[in-house]
Automatic annotation (TrEMBL), chain A:
Residue ranges annotated for the Sec23/Sec24 helical domain, each copy included: 923-1023
Record keywords: Cytoplasmic vesicle, Protein transport, Transport
Residue ranges of domain Gelsolin-like in the record: 1050-1123
Gene3D superfamilies per UniProt: beta-sandwich domain of Sec23/24, Sec23/Sec24 helical domain, Severin, von Willebrand factor, type A domain, Zn-finger domain of Sec23/24
UniProt feature, compositional bias: Polar residues: 176-185, 206-227, 263-276, 290-304
Protein name: Protein transport protein Sec24B isoform X3
Residue span, Sec23/Sec24 beta-sandwich domain: 828-912
Chief localisation class: cytoplasm
Domain of life of the source: Eukaryota
Organism: Galeopterus variegatus (Malayan flying lemur)
Domain Zinc finger Sec23/Sec24-type: 511-547
Residues annotated as domain Sec23/Sec24 trunk: 584-823
Family per record: Belongs to the SEC23/SEC24 family. SEC24 subfamily.
TrEMBL record, chain B:
Gene name of the encoded protein: LOC103583562
Membrane-topology annotation of the record: Multi-pass membrane protein
Any Pfam family matching the protein: Cornichon
InterPro entries with a match to the protein in the record: Cornichon
Annotated protein name in UniProt: Protein cornichon homolog 1
Length: 1177, 144
């Protein structure tokens, strides 16, 4: 129910904005928005909730219309309407609704004002446009302005879902993910062009209106408010009001990138995809991620319904909101709770059903008028350490409430797991013991989702999306001793700069932070009273600054808990000059290109020039953007592109021992002023060196020159290298012995041969310059040494083995696609990232590409959306006096538009005292990724075999530790808790991964590259690399399909990675993250081959096929839409390989079947037996 | 009471050990600063690295002196540390300049803790050695 209400509310909000939009009442009806919205919604909704779709759309449409119609005075039209915007906004709204009641409550609140305004001014017009439903609603509005009737329409669809909810064994937590998905989906498709921004504005307006009531369109106050939202328009009002506006908008607002020059604007759009959805009650799934995982969608139906429940009581909520108690969810969650059900709600039915089984009385008890309900109950425990650890756990566990329904059979086990303090609920699914050796199909048919921390609903909703922030243990052990007992790694996996579709951006004069530990204020702080808040990391009590006290929502003081900083666990601040050491730098790009004979022969210059020419205008940056080029062979060539020259001027420096810059000024030029020259150069570049005989490569000196060139500003250096550097500083010798490639013993030379590149990287890092390496070599190029230039300067590494433009078209295509992404993706300059955690925990080791500048501070010359990080944690002091711990990452960066910004993610996790709880909360994927990172370190610092042993030991230790906690089960069997059931499989996959495998011929560079990937990839991508997904695609059906952008995407079940699953009659798709393989069996149906591959029969399939022809058949369409869907949102665009059963390329495919035995490695079953043996020893 | 070569060795060792004690204290302070974020690891490594070899050489130097003076017991007491120094320097990370500490790994909690512990242990060792040399010197002076 919540969801619906939320939605409804949002709609209203939107409506208000639409008004703006239209400005003239007459226009409103004519606005295309309505229809668009409708489409949009339908699209979104259909995807996740297949069944429900139709009703929901219908309902929503009206809602949308309403919104538009309702136009409150929208005096200000916010500038350009971004088409994409609307989508975003709408999606955002969805999210919102589900997630945060508080918002919905807002809405209600505001609705009333909006309604009024509507009535007064434009109302009549607006209504006609709305559907029949709406007539009702309108009436209701008029009658009960404050009532949240908007919730009603939404409710219908959801109600349906509701019933279905229980059926699927979905965890309640995921509810919101659904909404998240919607967003994601919507995101890619820029459906409705209408400017969502305006909507935001409207929201804010509406809210503002409320107080004013009449809200005449030109009111100055309103304007100012609006301007915040609009951002671009922004009239730089820095007053609190603005901030407030932001807040309001936050939830709904997404930031789009539209290049807005105004720094003051509060709402900014970050183009990216949404990670953080405030809405997701339990835990918002990232849209993108969710999309990739088909199974999620299915599950989400159930989820949605649950989310709806949360929003169930709109009326009380709004009331609450007024009072300052912002958590309506609680009420809703306790279905039976006194919270008055919204009478106006047409669909009361769903609400009761959805209500969680175990109501939480404490929450319910809260009276409406109650002054400071702000604290989440869970939190309160935390703040009051006196409640011994035991008590809090019960609250915490309330999250499990819903489990009973789903796993009724588990009761018998609970006795053996006495440690679990689940209150009146049986043990969670994650603790179900599984006999690994007897479980034949361990791999679920749907993608594995991140476990949801066991928090109460409100905290769950507020918590950071697992796509940005994950912890290997979602239940943090109380002491290091307990952690040691569990034998599991404790650490965080971060993806801090993800593309988000929705991100609250906050402009305010003062960024509220703890005075002692400098933590940013976040949803998990506690307000002691109206004037003070208690830091959740160091427990210091801080004053709430005056500006923060002002709550623009109610235009009153004393509601700091309503501000967006406190309502969203992912926010972005526009930083003031306090956060700058120098004026924000412009975007500066330097390309350093190898043009030796080898490079020219490989022909990458053509691809690069082409990509650059195509994307020159899309390079992120503002009017100050600068660009430069250098080429090198045995000499270094600079290009003078100064504006005014008739053609680019090449300056050659042949003294590679002492490099100097021939002219300091004109080598890096303004992109816009010298665009013609740049284009000339790019057009000429591929042919300039065609006849070169120079085989040497003076990479080191070229890098030194690049450093000199970049050091005044900082920026990004992209290095293209095709061979071992052979001249000047940093020259390297070949270290690889090809005979040792398949050695099972020692793998040497995983570390750098020289520290030249490392030192250079550190120098670059000090000057805010990142070096990105593109290695396109056909032979050994000592990536282990070269990679250092990127590793320590926060760059990224791309590797294209045996690249050749003509002979290896798939690599060329990959380079081209990668370049497109690389050139156009977001970028942050001169960044630092600080990770803070609750007192008692400490950072141990960091993994990723960066330079560690102090114990918790990473220096990142550049940050890009594809960079992932991992952090090992240790527990230094016992956490017995707290029930929650929080982690906060703050990424301070300069955007390509020259704004200084801080992106803050906050994650909150419960603390547990029993071993069983620790096991219940294992996030096996995060654990595997952290282990992989640790293993890379180990193999470089010690040896590969050590690292492999450590991986096996990780499984052996954790399973034996678990085995010793369950006393009454047979010890002979290999038992794992359900949360860890995939652990051995993933570890085996790691052992067979290129980075760690032995016995199979692996080139040193390939191995090192795999290690670099492990260190720098975010979890989503890394997991695909470690354990690819296998699908059967010759029988795709629409059953269970999802809808994305009007496309039907089939969702075939996952197959386990074993040849036993491959039938000669089938065709299989393997998604390895960086490559797709389609394996065609010998006996594959000719119809499929003809329809999808465009070949008459198996024999005629070409050996090297890297694309699927666009055939106009159903199966082709399904296959292509499925593949496109899988591809969306990958940083490295995967290349498709069609592999025939007999072709030599099939070894590539078969090496990924990690459950099978190879000459050098165990099969999965053997591995289990091995582990079991080790345990028994 | 004759001023023998052995006595000279002990006196020299006494002075040099006093210097080494300062080295050790310097190390401890430096790593503490790192741990408490006062210093940038790059700067810190740049100041620490040049000190590593001098410290090892000073220690090696008076080990050789004791060898020449045939002070076997004293030499034996110092051998473990000498061996440790050799091992430590052999297994240093890849770097072109002299020194042990790599700014990219120094902030790793394990390494930081190890270095700190090493500093304290060395300080203790040098302090004990200082008094032992004092005793040794007097003993040699008195006995001869």
């Amino acid at each position: 129910m919540q969801v619906p209400s939320g939605y409804g509310l949002h709609h209203q909000n939107y409506i208000a904005p639409s008004g703006h939009y239209s400005q003239g009442p007459g226009k409103m009806t004519s606005l295309p928005l309505d229809s668009q919205c409708g489409d949009y919604y339908s699209g979104l909704y259909t995807v996740p909730t297949q069944n429900v779709v139709s009703p929901s759309t219908a309902n929503q449409q009206p809602g949308a219309q309403q919104m538009y119609s309702r136009v409150p005075p929208a005096p200000h039209i916010v500038g350009s309407t971004l088409g994409s915007f609307q989508c975003a906004a709408s999606s955002a709204s969805h999210l919102h609704t589900s997630a945060s009641q508080p918002y919905s409550s807002f809405v209600n609140h505001y609705n009333s004002p909006a309604v009024y305004s509507a009535n007064s001014s434009v109302a009549s017009q607006g209504f006609p446009s709305t559907c029949g439903h709406y007539a009702m609603s309108t009436v209701s509005n008029a009658a009960y302005p404050s009532v949240s009737y908007p919730s009603v329409p939404a409710g219908d669809p959801y109600g349906q879902m509701f019933t279905s909810q229980n059926a699927p064994p979905v965890r309640p937590a995921k509810d919101n993910s659904f909404s998240g998905q919607n967003t994601a989906i919507s995101h890619p498709s820029s459906l409705p062009p209408p400017p969502s921004q305006q909507q935001h504005q409207q929201q804010s307006l509406a809210e503002y209106n409320t107080p004013s009531w009449s809200s005449a369109p030109g009111l100055p106050t309103q304007d100012s408010l609006k301007r915040n939202n609009t951002g671009s328009l922004a009239i730089a009002n820095n007053n609190s009001a603005n901030t407030v506006a932001d807040c309001l908008s936050c939830p709904v607002i997404q930031n789009v990138h539209p290049p807005k020059s105004s720094p003051a604007v509060s709402t900014v759009l970050s183009g990216a995809s949404s990670t953080r959805m405030p809405p997701a009650a339990n835990h918002p799934v990232e849209p993108a991620a969710s999309v990739t995982q088909p199974s999620e969608l299915l599950q989400q139906k159930g989820i949605d319904s649950s989310s709806t429940t949360s929003s169930a009581s709109p009326v009380p909520n709004s009331y609450d909101a007024l009072e300052g108690g912002s958590y309506p969810d609680m009420l809703s969650s306790a279905a039976s709770s006194p919270a008055p059900e919204p009478t106006p709600d047409p669909d009361p039915g769903p609400a009761p059903a959805s209500t969680p089984v175990a109501p939480q009385p404490s929450k319910m008890a809260k009276p409406f008028g109650y002054g400071y309900p702000i604290l989440q109950p869970g939190y309160q425990n935390a703040t009051a350490p006196l409640n011994s650890g035991v008590q809090p756990s019960s609250t915490v566990y309330s999250g499990f409430q819903q489990y009973p329904q789903q796993y009724p059979g588990m009761n018998q086990l609970s006795s053996s797991l006495g440690g679990l303090s689940l209150q009146s609920s049986p043990q969670p699914e994650s603790l179900r013991p599984i006999n690994l050796t007897q479980e034949r199909n361990i791999l679920p048919v749907t993608p594995v989702l991140a476990p949801v921390p066991n928090l109460n609903l409100e905290l769950k909703k507020l918590n950071c999306s697992p796509d940005s922030f994950r912890c290997t243990l979602t239940n943090i052990p109380q002491t290091q001793a307990l952690l040691n007992k569990a034998k599991l790694p404790l650490g965080l996996l971060l993806h801090p700069f993800r593309d988000l579709t929705q991100l609250p951006v906050i402009t305010s004069n003062t960024i509220v932070r703890c005075r002692s530990c400098r933590t940013y204020i976040n949803p998990f702080v506690s307000f002691i009273d109206q004037r003070r808040w208690k830091c959740n990391l160091c427990y210091r009590v801080n004053d709430v600054p005056e500006e923060f006290m002002y709550n623009p929502l109610t235009r009153s003081y004393g509601e700091p808990h309503k501000r967006p900083e406190v309502q969203n666990s992912t926010v972005e601040f526009i930083a003031s000059s306090d956060y700058m050491l120098r004026p924000p730098q412009p975007a500066v790009y330097l390309f350093v290109l190898d043009v030796s004979h080898n490079a020219v022969e490989a022909g990458y210059l053509t691809v690069l020039s082409q990509s650059l020419l195509e994307n020159l205008d899309k390079l992120p940056g503002d009017s100050r953007t600068r660009i430069g080029f250098m080429t090198f062979d045995s000499t270094i060539h600079f290009y003078n592109l100064q504006e005014g020259l008739s053609q680019p001027q090449m300056l050659i420096v042949s003294d590679v021992d002492d490099v100097f810059l021939p002219t300091p000024d004109s080598l890096l030029v303004n992109l816009y002023e010298s665009k013609e020259l740049i284009k000339d150069l790019l057009n000429a570049l591929p042919n300039m060196f065609t006849n070169t005989r120079e085989t040497h490569s003076a990479l080191g000196p070229a890098l030194q020159a690049a450093f000199k060139l970049m050091s005044p500003t900082g920026g990004r250096v992209s290095v293209f290298q095709t061979q071992l550097p052979s001249l000047g500083a940093g020259l390297l010798q070949s270290r690889e012995d090809p005979n040792q490639r398949s050695s099972t013993k020692v793998v040497q030379h995983l570390g750098p041969a020289t520290d030249f590149y490392k030192k250079l990287a550190l120098d670059c890092s000090g000057q805010q310059t990142a070096v990105d390496l593109f290695l396109l070599s056909s032979q050994y190029s000592d990536l282990a040494s070269l990679a250092c230039m990127s590793k320590y300067s926060a760059g990224c590494i791309y590797y294209y083995p045996s690249f050749h433009c003509a002979h290896n078209p798939s690599q060329a295509e990959k380079l081209q696609k990668d370049l497109k992404r690389y050139l156009t993706r977001k970028i942050g300059f001169e960044a630092v990232m600080r990770i803070r955690c609750t007192k008692g925990l400490s950072m141990h080791t960091f993994h990723g590409n960066f330079f560690v500048r102090s114990t918790d501070l990473l220096s990142l010359a550049n940050i890009n959306p594809d960079a992932g990080f991992a952090v090992q944690l240790s527990i230094e002091e016992s956490l017995t006096d707290t029930s929650l711990v929080c982690f906060q990452t703050a990424l301070l960066y300069t955007s390509s538009k020259g704004e200084r910004r801080i992106r803050v993610h906050t994650l909150c996790l419960p603390v547990v005292s029993s071993l069983a709880d620790v096991y219940a909360g294992v996030d096996v994927q995060a654990a595997i990724c952290l282990l992989a990172n640790m293993a890379v370190d180990r193999s470089v610092s010690s040896s590969l075999s050590d690292a492999r042993d450590a991986l096996v030991n990780a499984v052996v230790d954790s399973l034996s530790a678990y085995g010793s906690t369950i006393s009454n089960l047979q010890h002979s069997a290999l038992i794992a808790p359900s949360s860890l059931k995939l652990f051995p499989l993933y570890v085996l996959a790691l052992l067979k991964q290129k980075a760690f495998r032995t016995g199979t011929s692996t080139r040193l560079d390939d191995r090192v590259y795999a290690m670099c990937q492990i260190k720098s990839q975010p979890l989503v991508h890394l997991m695909k690399m470690i354990h690819p997904n296998l699908y059967r695609i010759d029988r795709l059906t629409d059953e269970g399909a999802v809808h994305v952008n009007d496309r039907v995407v089939p969702q075939p079940p996952l197959q386990k990675l074993s040849a036993e699953k491959l039938t000669r009659e089938g065709a299989f798709l393997m998604d390895c993250g960086s490559a797709f393989y389609i394996w065609i069996g010998k006996g594959c149906d000719n119809n499929f081959i003809e329809d999808v591959l465009g070949c008459p029969n198996f024999a005629s399939i070409p050996q090297k096929m890297t694309y699927l022809p666009e055939l106009d058949t159903l199966s082709s369409e399904r296959a292509r839409s499925f593949i496109t869907w899988l591809r969306d949102g990958r940083p490295l665009s995967p290349i498709l390989h069609v592999v025939k059963d007999e072709s030599p390329a099939k070894t590539e495919f078969f090496q990924h079947l990690i459950e099978d035995r190879t000459e050098a490695a165990f099969s999965y079953y053997e591995f289990l037996l091995h582990v079991q043996q080790q345990i028994c020893k | 009471m004759v001023f023998t070569f052995a006595a000279f060795c002990y006196m020299l060792a006494l002075l040099l050990t006093a210097a080494l004690i300062f080295f050790a204290i310097w190390h401890i302070i430096a790593f503490d600063e790192l741990k408490t974020d006062y210093k940038n690891p790059m700067d810190q490594c740049n100041t620490l690295n040049p000190l590593v070899l001098p410290e090892y050489l000073i220690h090696a130097f008076f080990c050789v002196m004791f060898l020449c003076a045939a002070e076997w017991l004293t030499l034996g007491l110092n051998m473990p540390l000498l061996a440790y120094h050799i091992w430590r320097y052999m297994s240093r990370p890849m770097m072109s300049g002299p020194g042990l500490y790599d700014p990219t790994t120094i902030m790793n909690a394990d390494i930081l803790a190890y270095c700190q512990k090493e500093g304290w242990c060395k300080l203790a060792f040098y302090l004990l050695a200082f008094f032992y040399y004092l005793y040794g010197m007097i003993y040699v002076l008195v006995s001869s």
